[in-house]
Write a structure and sequence with these properties.
Layout (H helix, E strand, L loop, with lengths): L4 H17 L6 H7 L3 E4 L4 E4 H9 L2 H5 L7 E3 L2 E6 L2 E5 L10 E3 L2 H5 L14 E3 L4 E3 L1 H9 L3 H4 L7 E3 L2 E5 L4 E5 L2 E4 L2 H11 L11 E8 L10 E6 L3 E5 L4 E5 L5 E7 L2 E6 L2 E5 L3 E5 L5 E3 L8 E2 L2 E7 L4 E9 H5 L11 H23 L10 E3 L11 E2 L5 H4 L3 H8 L3 E5 L2 E2 L4 E2 L9 H5 L27 E2 H9 L4 H8 L4 E4 L2
Parallel strand pairs: 13-25, 25-26, 29-30
Antiparallel strand pairs: 1-2, 3-4, 4-5, 5-6, 7-8, 9-10, 10-11, 11-12, 13-24, 14-17, 14-21, 15-16, 15-20, 17-18, 18-19, 20-23, 21-22, 23-24, 27-28, 27-31
Helix pairs in contact: 10-12, 10-14, 10-15
Length: 500
């Protein structure tokens, strides 16, 4: 979607006329020989040149777009270049107009889900094109840094995300850090998403999830308040305030120390820097990041790793932030070689359990940890909340079965009365499952009641007994049951809903 399309068409017509008269400004490539213009940014090892550099310099530079993270590349037939917060696109059809270089629609491509439309509040400015309001510091920033041409229309109202007030636009995400507005690292986030999915993302957005994978001091002999992060390729280091801190490469170790939430010390390649806010390590290209305090067989992760000190648990955590689908295919609750319908049922249950836990924690004012749930391992002690056995990219190396189940059920969850239902599961039953209240008390969950499980008659209960037994899921899939039938048997009165 292009803003001011009528004006652009008019300008493009003028440009064509100017070309006929011999006065058209040369396109990007032709200008290169006449006026070399290149700047190398050692922070990321990439350069900005010619028309992209002119756009970069005149629209706010590093403060607005961050550092370049690629050179100019071809993507879907277009010449583009990625920056930490944006994607520049060269549009030769608008040569000689202000729209020769535009920003890609990364806000639309990275938004966690479609946002509900709003009505005019009477404050600030209302955009009927997307039915969203813009006011306060976000409106001030919008007006000061290019408005519609840079950011596009707002696509959400302001809301809380990862501890900040944010608002999505077609081309950006604004974040309020104290009294300062910063742009989110959408360039990094979108490239990580592409890398994690092996190419272009499937249709439809996906929510992200934040998973605690390591608590400082939990590995044998590891010091408290210190974590170590590595990678198998290039990576960048920034903080949650948007400031670029360091960059690294394969085989290098980034050490991060913190004993309170406002003082972080980073050491990489002989260089030491500090930060007053949590530290985010972002992969470049197909890089996998590593939490080096974990065992080598399970230390590789897709997405971003964030070091965040929690006053709730008085611990420096490493949090893996990634797309929900990448998370699902990293859950290691089962082996390879079972019927495909079983892996589809597993994927839907895993996804729903994670998403419902995330929603519950976000709605809980007492939940103050910097993550949504934890990996079920000794490396996240003493956290004992909702866990899943998440082993990162390691699970994918065991075989394709779970990934195929995840892809076949992309975005599907179990719902009850139109809401995402928590979907606990366990190893195997003793002839019947247990109800939620029978095991955990509290408020009843009508879809989690005891049901007969004749596939496990005569066996001992292994696990808590609530919800879907994995062993019986495999047996029923082998007997020809579909994943929908399996899920609707063990979770009573539910629907299977494609959420995104």
């Amino acid at each position: 979607m292009k803003s001011h399309s009528t004006l652009r068409s008019f300008l493009a017509t003028l440009a064509t006329l100017a070309a006929t008269l011999g006065t058209l400004i040369a396109p990007l490539g032709a200008r290169a020989a006449a006026a070399p213009l290149t700047e190398l940014f050692p922070q990321t090892g990439h350069s900005v040149s010619f028309g992209f550099k002119q756009f970069f310099d005149s629209r706010g530079g590093v403060q607005i777009f961050g550092y370049p993270t690629t050179e100019e590349i071809k993507e879907n037939g277009w010449t583009v270049q990625y920056f930490q917060r944006a994607r520049f696109e060269y549009h030769p059809e608008f040569a000689g107009t202000p729209y020769e270089v535009e920003l890609g629609l990364l806000g639309d491509l990275t938004a966690p889900h479609p946002f509900p439309k709003a009505t005019a509040t009477g404050q600030g400015r209302f955009y009927p094109q997307t039915s969203h309001n813009l006011s306060g510091p976000f409106l001030t920033f919008f007006n000061a840094h290019g408005g519609l041409d840079i950011f596009g229309y707002p696509t959400s109202e302001p809301f809380a995300m990862n501890g900040f007030t944010v608002q999505y636009f077609q081309r950006a995400r604004m974040e309020l850090h104290g009294s300062q507005v910063e742009l989110g690292l959408l360039g990094d986030e979108y490239r990580a998403k592409l890398a994690g999915q092996g190419g272009a993302p499937p249709a439809g957005g996906q929510p992200s999830i934040r998973v605690a994978i390591y608590g400082s001091g939990d590995a044998p002999g590891a010091p408290a308040n210190t974590v170590n992060i590595g990678a198998d390729g290039p990576f960048t280091v920034a903080n949650t305030a948007g400031a670029s801190l360091l960059s690294g490469n394969a085989g290098q170790t980034l050490t991060i120390s913190a004993s309170n939430p406002s003082s972080y010390t980073l050491a990489l390649n002989g260089k030491t820097v500090t930060s007053s806010s949590p530290v985010r390590v972002s992969p470049l290209g197909s890089t996998l990041l590593k939490e080096l305090n974990l065992p080598a067989w399970e230390d590789d992760f897709r997405g971003v790793l964030e070091a965040d000190y929690s006053t709730q648990s008085n611990k420096l955590w490493v949090v893996n932030e990634l797309g929900m689908e990448d998370y699902v295919k990293g859950i290691g609750e089962e082996t390879e070689g079972d019927p495909p319908e079983a892996y589809k049922a597993f994927a839907v249950a895993y996804r729903g359990y994670a998403l419902s836990t995330q929603q519950r924690h976000k709605a809980d004012p007492n939940w103050k940890e910097p993550f949504d749930l934890g990996s079920s391992s000794v490396y996240v002690a003493p956290y004992t909340g909702a866990n899943q056995i998440y082993t990162g990219e390691h699970r994918e190396t065991l075989g394709p079965d779970l990934t195929q189940g995840e892809q076949a059920t992309w975005g599907q969850v179990v719902t009850y009365n139109g809401k995402v239902a928590v979907t606990p599961y366990f190893s195997h039953s003793d002839g019947h499952t247990r109800g939620w209240q029978q095991v955990w008390g509290g408020t009843a969950h009508p879809w989690l009641i005891s049901v007969a499980d004749p596939d496990s008659n005569g066996e001992a209960l292994l696990g808590h007994g609530v919800g879907m037994p994995l062993q019986s899921t495999i047996k029923r899939a082998a007997a020809g049951w579909t994943y929908q039938h399996i899920l609707q048997y063990f979770y009573t009165g539910v629907q299977i809903t494609k959420l995104y």
